[in-house]
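Why this split exists: single-chain examples teach little about how molecules sit against one another. For that reason, every record in the complexes split bundles all components of an assembly together and asks for one structure covering all of them. Below is a record exactly as it appears in the raw files.
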Amino acid sequence: MQMIVIFIIGVILMYADMAFTGFSPMTMFGIEVYFVPKLLFMYILLLTIYAGPRISMLFAILFGVMLDVYIGSLYGIHIFGFIAFVIFMQTAFRVFYRDFVAMAFVVLLNTFLFDLYQYAVYSVLDFIAMPFFDYIALRAIPSVLVSALFFVILYVLAIQTAKVRKELRRIN
Amino acid sequence: MRVTKFFNRNRMLIVLFGIVVLIALIGFSLSDRDSTTKAEQFTGDTVAATQKVVDAPFSFIGNIFSSITGSFSALEENEALKEQLDMLPQLQADNERLAAENEELRESLEVSSSMAYETVNARVISRAPDQWLESFTIDKGEKDGVEEGMAVSTSEGLIGIVTRVNGKSSFIEMISTNASQNNMSVEVRHNDEAVYGNIRNFDTEKDVLVVENIKSQVKLEEGDEVYTSGLTGAFPEGIVIGKVVEVENDEYGLSQNAFVQMNSDLNDVDNVFVLKRDPESLED
């Protein structure tokens, strides 16, 4: 049951991510500003804490493959990133205390690092030529801000989906 | 302390193995493939199908809103369009007559045209969410006759290349991504002369395509039109790409480079055409 709920929410978040391409990049004062929230990625990271690393690893692999095959020009970039960051999240939370602020900080930091990792791979392969400071100012910071806006919703979603399992166990 | 603990021997090995797999996968996806595997097709089609289902209610609501806002300006638009329409029957008749004449002449010469093509109308179902490499998925695939390497254009001009074909959806890379161009050959027309050049890359700062290796004999000017040359893969000839906005000599002064503003709006792609080139002209 929980698996199905997580899967449906994941799929909807994936399409929400894609929907953002409809109005980003936005032109503000003649400069193109990119908003790239990573809702699905944040949701998977939160699942690591609330639903357990196994489940989140399973969905990291599943959605990683889906994104790679469906929309990726380079195979492996999503799946590797998802798995690596789920492992990272797991180890990070042996260090951090699990409260809301620490959680928000770590998850948003991870979204930033994930985008940075994609930026690094693509620029090494010479696919993109965005100067680093432009990247930080016009892409990384706006994206993290948008992600922060949606973080609260995802936080509630993750806790709710984690509860699905608990309730079912009580019934069983 | 923690770092050394995290990178103990087993974990280290797994991480290294992962990186090796990643590099292998990148190599695999960079290699020139001319077919899409069944597994890829299946995954692609499943995601595309679910996306269409999830999209349906949203686009329904969106359509209602846009038809309400559209109805305000509909009357004026209607008038303007009617005026344009008056000339249409004559133009259509002329067009048909010319096409028939052209066909007759070509038959008598026994040549096939590299300009002839058929179009498949398609709708864009999604854009890549990470917004790095500009790519999108359309709702037509193998069953509608789409194949790898075909040109994709909007009503304004060329926009991309089909890179993967699934059963009922396909994956398009825009020519503004540096992953897709592969030195595509283009034709620049200045007055009545045509010169050839190659697309080198897309300049993201100026939002222009850089075309290099253009002969210096013909001096290009701002406003010259750029078309596909028909020498690249399955691209038909004469598909408009854009206009020259700036010309400069290359560093050795042997050829010129042109900066080309693309006609299609890269950020707002909704309906596209896949261009199927007349197979007869591809045989040689």
